[in-house]
Amino acid sequence: MKIRIIGAGAVGIAVGWKLKAHSDLAFIVDEERKERYGNGLIYNGEHVDFRFLTPDESDIADLVIFAVKNMQLDDAIKEARPFIDNKTVLMSLLNGIEAESVLASAFGEEKLLYAFITDLSSVHSSFETTCFSDGGRIVFAEKHNEKTERVKAIATLFEEAGQRYTIAEDILHEKWWKFMLNTCFNTLSAILVADYAAISSNPDFIRAVRLVAREVQRVAAAEGIALTQDDIEKMNATVTALRDHGKTSMLQDLLSGRETENRYFAGAVSRLGKKHDISTPLADFVQILLEAKRRCL
């Protein structure tokens, strides 16, 4: 299978490292990144010679995986377009609940598999990624959960490559569950500068998570998605099981002086609250507080 990944950060590198030996794999990059990555990248201490292709070197892919941040998606769409034709399957591993609609507008709903990655604990710098969690687990499915041939083919590839995965029974519910996790844990971990080890040993952190999660529940219900108390407890158990010194992507972005996905997490909850006339004071507050913290660093 010819796979092209756009986004050579913690997610893209972890997935690419798994798939490299089991597919025709390359990263889509611009000219500047191709030159910068010319000596390869380091994954868990190992020098890896990934292949990098610019849009001018495009070939048509069977599967394009988007592994960028939300604020980079528009540029990623432009760079990925030459690699995509009518038979190309698209998979987004972006956080949040909005990327698929953007990709559908750009390329057509029929090309999309809905997906996200979870259980990924890592630390990433410009050329080096250290992963503490065996590369994370990809959850994916068709939008309406049909067990299609393309779902089966990608599952077979992941199986052969040792990429952990789950074919979701209800992918829209699962994506909202991950959105709740990102909104609660990424945002609060960045505000408090807490890695996974600190989170797992801090009951007051989890109390704060539960308060924010209730607001996500309310806007999800208005969007037709039922997030239950069991979903909240599953979310808490998933994150507190990561007892290492990995950091959420938002905390890493904050500490590195990069733009965060704040407006796609707590900001999205605030926007949906306004849309449905639902009060979201905690999401509003943590969104503003994170921006204030970013400006203080």
UniProtKB/TrEMBL annotation:
Family of this protein: Belongs to the ketopantoate reductase family.
Domain Ketopantoate reductase C-terminal: 170-293
InterPro entries, per the entry: 6-PGluconate_DH-like_C_sf, 6PGD_dom2, ApbA, KPA_reductase, KPR-Related, KPR_N, NAD(P)-bd_dom_sf
Segment forming the signal sequence: none
Reactions mediated catalytically: (R)-pantoate + NADP(+) = 2-dehydropantoate + NADPH + H(+)
Pathway: Cofactor biosynthesis; (R)-pantothenate biosynthesis; (R)-pantoate from 3-methyl-2-oxobutanoate: step 2/2
Gene3D superfamilies in the cross-refs: N-(1-d-carboxylethyl)-l-norvaline Dehydrogenase, domain 2, NAD(P)-binding Rossmann-like Domain
Role, per record: Catalyzes the NADPH-dependent reduction of ketopantoate into pantoic acid.
Gene Ontology CC terms: cytoplasm
Protein name (Swiss-Prot/TrEMBL): 2-dehydropantoate 2-reductase
Source organism, top-level taxon: Bacteria
Swiss-Prot/TrEMBL keywords: NADP, Oxidoreductase, Pantothenate biosynthesis
Residue intervals of the Ketopantoate reductase N-terminal domain: 3-142
EC number per UniProt: 1.1.1.169
EC class: oxidoreductase
One annotated GO biological process: pantothenate biosynthetic process
Molecular function per GO: 2-dehydropantoate 2-reductase activity
